[in-house]
Amino acid sequence: MPDPLRQSIHPNRSAESPPEDPMTDRKETLPLLSMAALGVVFGDIGTSPLYTLSACLSAMSLRPTADNLLGILSLIFWTLILVVGVKYAWVVMRADNHGEGGIMAVTALASRAVGHSGRMRWWILSIGLLGAALFYGDGIITPAISVLSAMEGMEVASPAWKPLVIPLALGIIIGLFLVQRRGTAAIGHLFGPSMLVWFLLLFGSGLTWVVADPQVLFALSPWFALHFIGMHGLGGLVILGAVVLAVTGAEALYADMGHFGSRPIRMAWFFLVLPALTLNYFGQGALLELDPTAIQNPFFKLFPTWATLPMVVISGIATVIASQAVISGAYSATRQAFLLGYLPRLTIIHTSAAERGQIYLPGLNWLLMVAVIVVVLWFKSSVALSFAYGTAVTGTMMFTTVLVFFVARHSWKWPLWKAGLFSGFFILLDGVFFGANLMKFLEGGWFPLAVGLAAFTVMSTWRSGREILARKLYPGAISVEDFLHGISPASPIRVPGTAVYLTVREQGIPHTLLHNLKHNKVLHEWIVILTIKFEEEPRILPEERVAVRDYGQGVYRLTARYGFMEHPDIPELLESSGNLGFPWNPMDTTYFASRQRVIPTPKAGMALWRERLFAVMLRVSANATDFFHLPPNQVMELGDVIELSPMAVSTASWRKTSGWSRGGKRAP
User: Fold this and answer.
1) Helix/strand/coil (H, E, C) string of 587-599?
2) For residue 44, what is the enclosing H or E element?
3) Burial of 629 (0-12, 13-18, 19+ CB in 10 A)
4) CA dist., res. 604 & res. 475, Å (int)
5) I need a surface site. Which of 172, 244, 531, 667 has the fewest CB within 10 A?
C-alpha cells in the first residue's frame, strides 16, 4: 500500500520551492479578509472571557484580592502574548503546507522534512495522530462549555432561571447540529460582522471598568505573574490549567490559515482581538477589585442590569459561531485523515456549490451531537468542564510544537540551537500547562484523554489493517505486460465500451479485472486501470493531476493525484483530462470496484479485538460509488473475503484456479 505521506515528485515544481501565497489570487482587501477571519478563526478564543477568569479563581478557591487578581491577569496576558502572538502568529504559521495549516498539515511537512528515516517518520506520524486525536476531544467540549457559559448568564439576571440553563443549552446544541446538513453558506457571511460586534462589546465593557480602576494595568508587567507563582509554590501551577483557557482557540489560527492566509489573521489578532481580550479580562479584574461579590459571574456583571439578557442572547450567538467553527474543523480534519489513509471512507455531502470546503459528514455529525449532549449532562457547568477543556487544548499545542521543531530544523534549516531554543521553551511551557490540567485528572481531565485514546486507536487500527490487507491482496500481482502476452484477437472476446478498474496499486493487473475475466470470459474494447493517489499537499495543480500510460491493445493506466483538501470525482476527472488516447463515452463506461470483507482470526497480524474493530470499520466504510461520485447504474462491485492471518491469498493460487500462467499464457 503506498505511503500517502511520502515525498511527492512534481515535474514543474521542486519540493523545496516556497509555497504559493494564498493571498496572491484573492480579490478581497486585507481588512475584508481580516473581518471574515473574525467569524471563523477567532470564535473560540473570542468567547473564552465568558469563563476563564471564573475558572482561574475557582481552581484554587481564591478570593478576588488585589494580589491574586494582578497575578492571574498577568498570567493570562503573557499567555496570550507568548502562546498566540509569538508561537502561533509569528512562528508556527510559517509552517504552511502550500498555504494550509493544522496538525495534519504540519505532520506531513515534518514527515517530508526528515526524509526516509523510517523510525523517525514513525514517531512523527504517531505524534501527529495523537495531536489529531486530541482535537476530537476539543471538538466535543467546545460547544458544550461555550453554550453552557453563555446560558449561565441567565442566573445573573435572575436565580430563578437557573433550572433553564441546561435545557436551553441542550436545545441550542441540538439545533446547531440539526442545521449542519443545510450547510453554513447562507449564514456564514454574517459570522464576521457578528464577531466584530462581539469584540467591540468586549473592548468597550472592559475599558469602562479599567478606567474606573486603572491600577489593574500593573498586570501588564510579567513580574506579577512570576510573583504569583512564587507566592503559591507548586500549588500555584494548578491555576495554569485554568489560565490556558484564555488561548483555547490558538490552534484555530493555524488550522484555518488556508481560508484567509496568514496576514489577515495576524492583522485581526494584533489590531482587534488581542486588545479586546486584554481589556475585557482586565475589566473583569477591575470589577472584582471594586465589587468582590461579582465573583459569581464577572463577565455578565460588567454590563448594566438591563443589558444582562441582551448580552445572554449576543453571547449565545457568539458561542454558536465558535461551536460552528470547531464542528467545521472536525469535518475538515476527518476528511484529511481518511484521504491520507487513517480513517475509512465516509459519506461526504457538499453543502455549497461555490465553496468546496463547505462539507457535511452525517455519521460524524450525529456522533458529535450525542457526545456533546452527554458532556453537558455529565459536567452540568462551564467551570466543571474547564479542566477537561484545557487538557485537550494543551495536548494538541504540545504535539504541534514538537512537529514544528522538525520543520524548522530540516526544512527551514534553522541551526540546532535556534530550533532547540524555540521548541524547548514552548514544549516546556506547553508541558507545564498540560501537567497543570492533569492535576485535575479526576475532575474532568480524563475525558479528552479518553476521547483522544479512542480516536488514536481507531486511526492506527485502520492504518495497520489496510497495510496488512494490501499485503494479502497483492503479494505478487501479474504485470500488465505479462497479461497482454496472453491476449489474442480471438480470445478472450472483446466487447464494445470502456471498463474503468479502480485499484490502489500503481503496478500490475487489478483483482477486479481478473475476477471479471474469470467469471464473464470477456474484456472490454477499452480498459482503463485507474489509481487515485492522495498526496500530503493540500491541492494539486490541474496540469499535474493525471499521468497516462498506453500499454497497447486498448489498455491504459491512469494515475490521478489529489491533495488532502480535495475530493475526487472520477467522471469529472475523465471528462476534464482531455485527449486520453481513446474515444471515451461516459454513457458507455462501466466502473469496476472491489469491496473486501474481513474475517477476524486469533492468528498473528493484529490483536483479535483490533481485527474485529477493523472489520467493523471496513463494513461501514462508504462504498466507492458514493465516494468517487460514480453513476450508480454503471458500477459493478466485486468482493473478496479475507482472513487477516499470516497466510496470504496468493496470486499464484488465483492463477491456478483461473487458468492464467505467469508467462502470460492460458493454462490448459
Assistant:
1) HHEEEEEEEEEEE
2) helix 43-46
3) middle
4) 17
5) 667
| DSSP assignment of 77-93 | HHHIIIIIIIIIIIIGG
pLDDT band at 79 (very low <50, low <70, confident <90, very high): very high
What pTM did the predictor assign?
0.76
Element (H, E) at 534: strand 522-534
**Residue matched to cell numbers 453552557:** 148
Give the integer Cα–Cα distance in Å for 414 and 421.
Answer: 11
3-state SS string over 537-572? CCCCCHHHCEEEEEEECCEEEEEEEECCCCCCCHHH
Neighbouring residues of 370: CB distance < 8 A, sequence distance ≥ 6:
none
Q: Is the peptide bond before 492 cis (omega within 30 degrees of 0)?
A: yes
- Mapped onto helix, strand or coil, the DSSP state of residue 349 is strand
The amino acid at residue 10 is H
pLDDT at 645: 59
Query: Taking the mean position of all CA atoms in its chain, how far away is CA 308?
Result: 36
Q: What is the pLDDT of residues 553-567, one digit of tens each?
A: 888 898 998 887 787
Cβ neighbors of 586 (< 8 A, separation 6 or more) are 571, 574, 575
Distances (CA, A) of 441 to 371, 428, 449: 19, 20, 9
Does residue 215 contact residue 224 with C-beta atoms inside 8 Å? Answer: no
Asked if 560 and 531 touch (Cβ cutoff 8 Å), the reply is: yes
Neighbouring-strand partners of residue 593: 637
Which residue carries 479528552 as its cell?
Answer: 448
Q: Is 303 helix (H, G, I), strand (E, B) or coil?
A: coil
- What is the grid cell recorded at 107? 505532520
What is the grid cell recorded at 316? 449565545
524: helix, strand or coil: strand
Are 74 and 228 in contact, with CB atoms under 8 Å apart?
A: yes
Query: Averaged over 345-374, what is the pLDDT?
Result: 78
Q: Is 533 exposed, middle or buried (0-12, 13-18, 19+ CB in 10 A)?
A: middle
d(CA 640, CA 139): 36
Terminus-to-terminus CA distance in the chain, angstroms?
33
For residues 502 and 560, the answer to whether their CB atoms sit within 8 Å is: no
Let me know: does 287 contact 302? Beta carbons within 8 Å. Answer: yes
Burial environment of residue 305 by CB neighbours within 10 A (0 to 12, 13 to 18, 19 or more): exposed
Q: Pull the grid cell for residue 475.
A: 503479494
Residue length, the chain?
668
Fill in the amino acid letter for 131. Answer: G
Structure-block grid coordinates of residue 277:
481580550
Average pLDDT over residues 547-576: 85
* Residue 3, Ramachandran bin (φ over 0: left; ψ between -120 and 50: alpha; else beta): beta
Question: Which three-class secondary structure string do you get for 88-150?
Answer: HHHHHHHCCECCECCHHHHHHHHHHHCCCCHHHHHHHHHHHHHHHHHHHHHHHHHHHHHHHHH
Q: Which residues contact 149 (CB under 8 A, 6 or more apart)?
A: 47, 50, 51, 315, 319, 382
Grid cell of 24 as nine digits? 496572491
DSSP, residue by residue, 637-650: EEEEEEE-SSS---
Going by their DSSP bridges, the two strands 522-534 and 555-562 should be labelled as parallel
- Residue 23 pLDDT exceeds 50: no
Instruction: Answer for the pair 252, 41: CB distance below 8 angstroms, yes or no.
Output: yes
CB atoms within 10 A of CB 403: 25
Coil vs helix vs strand at 437? helix
Query: Distance (Å, rounded) from C-alpha 94 to C-alpha 86?
Result: 12
The answer to whether the beta carbons of residues 525 and 494 sit under 8 Å apart is yes
